[in-house]
Write a structure and sequence with these properties.
heterodimer, A: mainly alpha, 4-stranded mixed β-sheet, elongated
């Protein structure tokens, strides 16, 4: 028991002394969470008006108009006043643009009605300028105005032009929801649930992968510098494995405290910014989350300790991390799907499969109810798989492997499993 | 010079023939294809494919006009009145229905009935197209087509001299793909760089090699060899993207209007070489300083972070590509490559920023290579004892 305690103490102190550990623990998740929260906040911002009926109340831009086709004779009443300022030629329009009197100018060529292209001149143009209130080009807030003006003048009928421009403006559409949501808070909570569903898989991904990778590196380091030969004189391989697994679980717990603390702060901040009701995790969530994290960590640590025992150096062992990364990737990529469609077949499959369930089931639990049978199947599958891999890891964690110089190979791994 | 190419050739062959290299190079495009396929499957399976109903009190809408549309993927179902439409909606036969009152289109007031969620933009857009078809049917066919297509608009940006059209939007995708591909290729090459220096230091072959090679020939040859490895990887990824796009072209109309962005490819080629030299220089310096590969990888992991920072702050760059942060990233040498790639895809980048960024990057890269060669030489001479940062800096000052 004393030797296990010594292993734990040494390994924890070793990792905590590494500067890279603290940088990864503090910097990386802060950036990821910040970016995701920012992104989600932006996604929930109100949409920019794009129809004549819902014209922006803010000051409209001033756009120069050079009409070589003599097309524009009619200005619809519902266009913002003084949106288009006529100029006789490009030179004067350019001068006005340079002086800042206009933000863009539009040139209608003489051959426009025969298939000519309208040219907009701009400075610092951005393609995705949905938020730019001064653009009449595609994706700009006033792109509708240019099309509307042209259509009205081509047809000579502003009402028909309005229909062609937008037959059913959202602002003029009376919405009749026949089945209202269960609670008024549901839609606002969905916004927060999406943030949680984006952040939670990252949190679990880093905790599990870093936990597993520390485990592997810690075993390999001692193999590489041959201290394992001395260590095995005074303790048996099982004690070494148990000591290392507990030590790395302490490291994961430290990271968990830092990340969850930071995550909660960000969530509360996001809830304030978005004027949502404070997001509340379902009751019992933390118990389930800890259980899945513990089982997931034990599973990943067992696999990585086996890999560490078989690899001769850190590079060889690093290749095996991919086995753990791949099952966790779909949860990272489809995070928002967990909040929007918690019973989607992909979501259910990921939350039952033992290699992805530690991250997927916790994400699902965080954002909604999960049927009891699924929770039970998921836990049982994870417990069974973890037990199996710990037993298998014990097989690999033998003096023969720990002292061997033979290179890591999948064939060696497979033959070891067969016993 | 012969030795230089010998090292380059050896390094290239050694890396390209490794099983891990072949696997990574092939698995990444396959993985990307799998992710895109999965995303499409998820999107398809969650999409509501039920018809959209409508009640037309104007008696202007002719259902056959929509049925004759070759590209109509949404079924639009007419109902005589609200009661029958509502019964169909409650029965789950339709996902929603519009009601056009007799006064339509003056005003363009409509009613939309749905259960929980209104129809998505594509479904709503299909109904809009149907109304447009009906209200323009009396017009001259050429004018009608011009109205339905909308005016052809191009944008000339006076700051960068670039021209954009609505078709350019598809070109945004390319820099995103390219950024990730460049990122993977460059980062793996930098990983190999530190590995080759640290490996040969560890197994002492370096000492034997330096009896017949100068440090420049050794490091230069290795860098060129690894540049070849990175370019091979980029070539394979690029080819996969081109084949993928060509295969998807008949099914995705947006892709048919896409043009090859030669200017973007030229800019990226100009930035790639100094960016690669900068990464290689930094990694050689680290490989020379650290006593073993494991420590080297830890330090390199942190420095890699400086190169990939724009990916973590992607949302901010997309939101406002001219924000001070995006400009700072454009000018800062380690983030310049990825930021320029992203910003170029999103719109115009002022020429002065491109020029300044490139000059800063080249100067930093040359400096990094010089520093690396100094540290490498000192690291070789002092092998056996750990090279501290202080010794490395002192060695640089004395040169």
């Amino acid at each position: 028991m004393k030797t296990i305690w010594l292993v734990i103490k040494h390994d924890v102190a070793f990792v905590l002394r590494q500067r890279s550990f603290w940088i990864m623990t503090l910097l990386m998740p802060a950036l990821l969470m910040g970016t995701n929260a920012y992104l989600a906040t932006q996604n929930n911002a109100p949409a920019t008006p794009t129809t004549p009926a819902s014209a922006d109340q803010s000051t409209p831009p001033r756009i120069g108009l050079v009409d070589h086709a003599n097309l524009i004779t009619l200005t619809p009443d519902d266009l913002p006043p003084h949106l288009f300022l006529p100029f006789p030629d490009e030179t004067t329009a350019q001068a006005a643009l340079d002086q800042g009197d206009i933000t863009q100018y539009v040139v209608i060529p003489a051959d426009f009605t025969d298939g000519g292209e309208i040219v907009i001149y701009d400075r610092g143009f951005q393609l995705l300028s949905g938020g730019d209130s001064s653009s009449v080009a595609f994706n700009g807030s006033y792109d509708w105005a240019l099309t509307y003006l042209i259509t009205a003048n081509l047809t000579g009928d502003t009402q028909l032009a309005a229909v062609v421009q937008n037959p059913t403006p959202r602002a003029a559409t009376q919405m009749h929801r026949l089945q209202p949501p269960a609670s008024a808070d549901e839609s606002s909570n969905l916004g927060m649930a999406i943030i949680v569903a984006r952040v939670m898989p990252y949190l679990f991904y880093f905790l599990l992968i870093m936990g597993g990778s520390y485990m592997m590196r810690s075993v390999v380091a001692e193999k590489e510098n041959r201290t394992v030969e001395i260590l095995l004189l005074s303790l048996d391989p099982t004690q070494l494995m148990i000591g290392k697994i507990i030590a790395m679980s302490v490291i994961v717990a430290i990271q968990l405290v830092v990340w969850v603390g930071g995550g909660m702060l960000i969530l509360n901040r996001a809830a304030t910014v978005m004027q949502f009701t404070s997001f509340a995790f379902p009751s019992g969530f933390f118990v389930w989350a800890m259980l899945f994290l513990l089982l997931g960590y034990l599973l990943f640590a067992a696999i990585m300790s086996a890999v560490g025992a078989l690899a001769t150096n850190a590079r060889e062992g690093g290749q095996a991390i991919w086995i753990l990364v791949i099952p966790l990737m779909p949860t990272l990529m489809f995070g928002p799907l967990f909040a929007e469609e918690p019973n989607h077949p992909l979501v259910v499959a990921l939350s039952l499969f033992p290699f992805s369930s530690p991250s997927a089931m916790v994400t699902r639990l965080a954002v909604g109810d999960v049927p009891a049978w699924q929770l039970l199947v998921s836990v049982l599958a994870l417990v069974g798989t973890t037990y199996l891999f710990i037993v298998l890891a014990g097989r690999f964690f033998k003096s023969g492997n720990l002292l061997s110089d033979t290179a890591f190979s999948w064939r060696r791994l497979a033959s070891g499993w067969k016993g | 010079m012969n030795n230089f190419w010998l090292v380059a050739k050896h390094e290239y062959r050694r890396m390209v023939l490794r099983r891990a290299f072949v696997l990574t190079t092939l698995l990444i495009p396959l993985g990307m294809a799998a992710v895109i396929g999965l995303a499409i499957l998820v999107g398809e399976s969650t999409a509501d494919k039920r018809p959209l109903g409508y009640v037309d009190h104007t008696h202007q809408l002719d259902p056959t006009l929509w049925q004759n549309q070759p590209d109509a993927t949404v079924e639009l179902r007419p109902f005589p009145d609200e009661a029958t439409a509502q019964a169909a909606l409650e029965n789950g036969d339709i996902q929603a229905f519009f009601v056009l009152p007799a006064t339509y289109p003056n005003p363009r007031q409509t009613d939309l009935y749905f259960m929980e969620e209104p129809p998505n933009g594509d479904i709503w857009g299909a109904f809009d197209d149907f109304v447009r078809l009906n209200y323009t049917r009396q017009l001259d066919p050429a004018l009608r087509q011009q109205l339905l297509d909308g005016p052809a608009v191009i944008v000339n940006d006076l700051d960068s001299g670039r021209t954009f059209s609505s078709a350019s939007i598809i070109n945004i995708i390319l820099p995103f793909f390219a950024t990730f591909i460049f990122f993977i290729a460059t980062m793996s090459a930098s990983g190999y760089m530190i590995q080759v220096v640290a490996d040969e230091k560890e197994n002492r072959t370096m000492e034997i090699m330096l009896t017949s090679l100068s440090p420049f020939q050794l490091i230069g040859g290795k860098t060129i060899g690894l540049l070849g490895v990175a370019l091979t990887q980029l070539g394979i990824y690029g080819l996969t993207v081109v084949v993928g796009l060509l295969a998807a072209q008949p099914f995705v109309p947006m892709l048919q209007t896409a043009v090859i962005p030669w200017a973007y490819l030229l800019i990226m080629a100009l930035f790639f070489l100094p960016a690669f030299a900068l990464i290689a220089g930094i990694m050689v310096a680290i490989g020379s300083i650290v006593p073993n590969l494991q420590q080297g990888q830890q330090v390199a992991g942190l420095l890699n972070f400086l190169f990939i920072l724009p990916i973590f702050l992607l949302a901010i760059i997309i939101e406002n590509p001219n924000a001070p942060l995006a400009v700072a990233f454009t000018l800062f040498p380690t983030t310049a490559f990825l930021t320029v790639s992203l910003r170029w895809g999103l719109g115009s980048v002022p020429l002065w920023q491109l020029g300044a960024s490139w000059v800063i990057l080249v100067i930093t890269a040359v400096f990094a290579v010089w520093v690396a060669s100094r540290i490498f030489r000192i690291g070789m001479l002092q092998y056996g004892q750990p090279l501290s940062w202080k010794t490395a800096v002192a060695a640089l000052r004395s040169s």
